[in-house]
Amino acid sequence: MTPGTAAGAPTATPRRLVEVAPGVHVATAVRYTTTSTVLVAADGSCVVVDPAVTPGEVSGLAAAVQSAGRRVHGGFATHPHWDHVLWADALGGSPRWATPACAAVAARERDALVRAAVDDGEHGERPALRTVGRLTPLAGGVLPWSREVVVVPYRAHAPGSAALVVADARTLVAGDVLSDLEVPLLDLDAADPIGDHLVALDALEGAAAVHGVRVVLPGHGHVTDAAGMRRRLAADRDYLEALAAGRAPDDARLADPWVRGEHDRQTAALRDR
User: Fold this and answer.
1) Neighbours of 140 (CB within 10 A)
2) Cα gap 58→103, rounded to integer Å
3) How would you list the strands of the sheet with 162-166, edge to edge?
4) Who's near 80: CB < 8 A, 6+ residues apart?
5) CA Rg, the chain, in Å?
6) Does this model's pTM top 0.90?
7) Which of 17, 88, 233, 242 could form a disulfide with 25 if both were Cys (CB 3.0 to 4.6 A apart)?
8) Alpha carbon distances (Å) from 108 to 86, 131, 135, 209
């Protein structure tokens, strides 16, 4: 019996994992085009980043890991929003790392994270809810693992956000920035949400340059290459500069009704400051 699976429990259907760079495997959920990433080392161990977004999908991710013969060494949450701090018993009890600030927010706001997961629907599976937001503060700038994965903290979108650079795969796991589908979604509780987001884009661009990044994985949206990252950086900066100037952004991503609603909410919040 697989550890963490109750006797007689139904076996989850493995999700499709696509290898987008050496040892970097991606599953994309239909809801929110949410990206989950499985990083695999030569010894067969793996790190699961942002498993999402329903209990069935998280269990399916675990099934895909198990069917491939991988051993979960740990997890990582890029930021403390409910859809990025999920887990499943079948993924095991390894540490789920995050920046200290992210882990602190998740611990402090765990009840709210659970409520948000429930309110979003399809989250009646109690084991998934029990493990929401149980994060381990990461000391240092690299994951404690056989593969070099560099943590790039940034102040944008949510407190304690961070990206990961998989050095040997030249891959940036960006978190909820650099999306082709979503405009920059700000941390509106910050003192300077627009300024913070611009600084974060600079930090990610700098990290990508240092490590020669060729593949970029957003938390929501589609995988892109270095040229695509440059286009998204330009689009995000244009959007943020328009917000700062109080003018309407010319951004194709605003054609989506949900994104337009988030933009209107941000505009109102910034105007009312």
Assistant:
1) 7
2) 20
3) 149-153, 162-166, 171-175, 215-218, 224-225
4) 98, 102, 103, 105, 106, 109, 113, 133, 135, 158, 159, 160
5) 18
6) yes
7) 17
8) 16, 14, 11, 35
Element (H, E) at 226: helix 226-245
CA distance 131 to 234: 37
Both tokens of residue 215? 């593949």
Query: Using 50, 70 and 90 to split pLDDT, how confident is the model at 7?
Result: very low
130 membership: H or E segment, kind and range: helix 126-130
Q: What's the DSSP call for residue 67?
A: H
Is residue 150 within 8 A of residue 171, CB to CB? The reply is no
Q: For the segment 239-252, what is each residue's pLDDT rounded down to a tens digit?
A: 999 999 999 999 99
164, pLDDT greater than 70: yes
Classified as helix, coil or strand, 202 is helix
CA distance 63 to 57: 10
Residue 42 CB: number of other CB atoms within 10 A?
Answer: 8
Q: Which two tokens stand for residue 54?
A: 């329903």
Q: Are 99 and 138 in contact (CB under 8 A)?
A: yes
